[in-house]
Amino acid sequence: MITLSIDEGKQLLSLCRAGTLYEVEAWIHAGKSLRVPEELRTTPLRIAIDLGFYSLIQLLAIHEESEAVLNDALGAAVDLRSLELVQLLLKHGAQIRGVPLISVMRSWDPALMQLFLDGGADVVTEYPFARAFSEKIRTALSRLIAFRRSHPELDREMQEQVDRALRFFAGDGNLKWVSLPMWAGGDPRALGPKLDDEDDPDLYVTALQEAASGHSLDVMKKLKPDPSRDDLTELLEYAVLGLDIDMI
């Protein structure tokens, strides 16, 4: 599909903003392009979504040839938490992986999350579950537990995300959000990076070490240090180091 001129693009966008469904339909039936110049910084489909004009969205989605445009519209539909629009756009060529899973999780909508998970969303790149937990999106927790049960082949990757979240909240001293990853199977002795830390083995920590550094007695009790398994002297050293940092 050829790109319209600036003037033609403005004309088409103006028709969409005015909600003139039949004029847009006539434009399409005349064989005119829907691709507006990038300089206009929007698309007919995005304008239709902003208007909430379902019939216009459907018309444009059916005839839209650009996967990038459809995926951009899909992201907008997710932001609106509109399951109906998401399903429409997926039906007409938008791609599940065209929207990062964390963006879907930020909707807090279990139905949307499940739709993307069932459709093959990328559950590994950028650790979307761990990131959702760090943002305290509670509805992501039940989705992760169900996903682990149905996808045992990805259990290691899911465990890593739970452990990252546990290390994050242990360092933050947040008992409630330490309890939830623990309930989901988090390992307080798993060594690794926190959420956005550099993936450097020399910097790896455990949730127990993070809790010791953060001086949260309640969190330490929840993680249950065990003299037969844990180096209590080392944990004390982390606590002292944490005190020194706090005093700087």
Number of DSSP-assigned strands: 0
Following the backbone from N to C, one meets helices and strands in this order, namely HHHHHHHHHHHHHHH
**Percentage of residues in strands:** under 5%
Rg over CA atoms, rounded to whole Å, is 24 Å
Shape: elongated
Termini distance? 61 Å
Taken together, the total number of domains comes to: 2
Helix share bin? 55-70%
Secondary structural class: mainly alpha
How does CATH name the architecture of the largest domain? Alpha Horseshoe
Low-confidence stretches: 243-248
Structure in words:
- The protein is an all-alpha fold and 248 residues long.
- The protein folds into 2 domains: 96 residues, Alpha Horseshoe (Serine Threonine Protein Phosphatase 5, Tetratricopeptide repeat); 149 residues, Ankyrin repeat-containing domain (Serine Threonine Protein Phosphatase 5, Tetratricopeptide repeat, Alpha Horseshoe).
- The longest helix is centred in the middle third of the chain and has 18 residues.
- The radius of gyration is 24 Å and the shape is elongated.
- The C terminus is likely disordered.
Topology of this structure?
Blueprint: H1 6-17, H2 21-29, H3 44-51, H4 54-63, H5 67-79, H6 83-91, H7 101-105, H8 110-118, H9 128-134, H10 139-150, H11 155-172, H12 175-183, H13 207-214, H14 217-223, H15 232-247
Helix pairs in contact: 1-3, 2-4, 3-4, 3-5, 5-6, 8-10, 9-11, 11-12, 11-13, 12-14, 13-14, 13-15
